[in-house]
Specification:
With 356 residues, the protein is an alpha/beta fold. The chain is built from twelve helices and 14 strands. The strands form four sheets. A six-stranded parallel β-sheet has the order 4-3-5-6-7-13, sandwiched between helices. Helix 5 links the parallel strand 3 and strand 4. The longest helix is centred in the middle third of the chain and has 16 residues. The radius of gyration is 26 Å and the shape is elongated. The chain starts with 7 loop residues before the first strand and ends in an 8-residue tail after the last strand. 39% of the residues are buried.
């Protein structure tokens, strides 16, 4: 047979054309490797005593054929597969890819594989994603946030598998929780701004009512300002995705409306970076006349002419800690339900949160 022939040999030497392929089976791997189907099963499930030479021969045959084991069939007895449902609200703001990288880094040393779902901050979509993912009987769920619908909460509570809610600890978790306190983050930033002597403060952020973490940061921020007798002087909100252009537009709008502001606090680094570039272009003295700060500590912004003050949301660490909880639970480790991992964000003053 020509090694480049795309057809797959069927039992008895016949061929199926590419559009008539049948699923490969253990028998195909057995015939290709010259060992029994039971031995192939043991090798692919990493069970039982099999010589190194036989194991290598089976794995080579499976790889050559492109055989992927049917994990659902093998999981019926245990009612789960080696998948971890990872559910996040967005992939467009550069925050959650870091979380996913942390999860993947930990799980790659286990038999578990992350499977991704995106909710777009919509409760109805979260319910749909959860329903579909839980129907595959994953080994665990890692899901962003603490606020969810009654239906979503019920599905998670009755799933019978480890659930880790991530990115936020200000609330009532279903099971385990890993993240930072966003109210604390807002309070920390407000205190740093006050300590630097700024008093005419503007806030620029998302209008999305379901971005609960941004809302909690703003609550902590305003709480600390009010204790010092300071009110937010003006606010500018946006809808949709964030980015440099959005930050420039918002900064221009708020400064034209309230030109005596001496500090701008942005709900994320991307719009903050856009605002910084706008101010530098207009010759505004940053931080002497106008201080600025964002949130998330996005490494992409390290190349800006000036370093934006920001706060690390511990994204990768959150992903790694959540994945370790799932992996330990699945492996039968000593962890119990209800683990709480509270990480402390780090404030970076950069070049924009200090009087010149």
């Amino acid at each position: 047979m020509n090694k480049d022939d795309p057809r797959i040999p069927a039992a008895g030497g016949a061929f199926h054309s590419p559009d008539q392929r049948r699923p490969l089976t253990l028998r195909d791997v057995s015939e290709a490797s010259g060992v029994s189907e039971m031995t192939v099963s043991r090798v692919l499930r990493n069970r039982g005593d099999v010589s190194d030479a036989t194991r290598a021969r089976v794995l080579a045959a499976a790889k050559r054929l492109g055989y992927v084991p049917n994990k659902i069939a093998g999981a019926l007895a245990s009612s789960r597969v080696n998948l971890v449902a990872v559910i996040v609200p967005s992939l467009s703001n550069m925050v959650f890819p870091d979380v996913i990288n942390g999860i993947s880094h930990v799980l790659e040393d286990t038999e578990l594989q992350p499977v991704l779902g995106v909710t777009h901050y919509q409760p109805e979509q979260e319910e749909k994603v959860l329903y579909e993912m839980l129907s595959w009987r994953p080994s665990g769920v890692i899901i962003a946030g603490l606020e969810r619908s009654d239906a979503a909460r019920a599905m998670l509570q009755n799933s019978g598998i480890p659930v880790v809610e991530i990115m936020d600890v200000d609330g009532d978790p279903i099971d385990a929780v890993v993240g930072i306190s966003h109210r604390r983050a807002g309070r920390m930033m407000a205190q740093a701004i006050l300590d630097a002597g700024y008093r005419r403060i503007g806030f620029l952020g998302t209008k999305m009512p379901l971005d609960h973490r941004a809302r909690k940061r703003l609550e902590g921020f305003t709480e600390t300002l009010e204790k010092a007798g300071v009110q937010i002087a003006d606010q500018e909100f946006y809808e949709g995705g964030s980015g440099f252009a959005k930050g420039r537009e918002m900064t221009q709008a708020i400064l034209e409306r309230t030109p005596d502001l001496d500090f701008l606090y942005y709900s994320n680094d991307l719009i903050g970076a856009g605002g910084l570039l706008y101010c530098l272009e207009k010759g505004i003295d940053v931080p002497g006349k106008l201080g600025m700060a964002g949130f998330n500590k996005i490494e992409l912004l390290d190349g800006l002419p000036r370093k934006l003050a920001t706060m690390d949301s511990c994204r990768r660490e959150v992903g790694e800690a959540a994945a370790r909880i799932i992996a330990d639970r699945v492996a039968g480790g000593a962890r119990n339900r209800g683990e709480q991992v509270v990480l402390i964000p780090t404030l970076t003053l950069g070049d924009t949160l200090q009087r010149s």
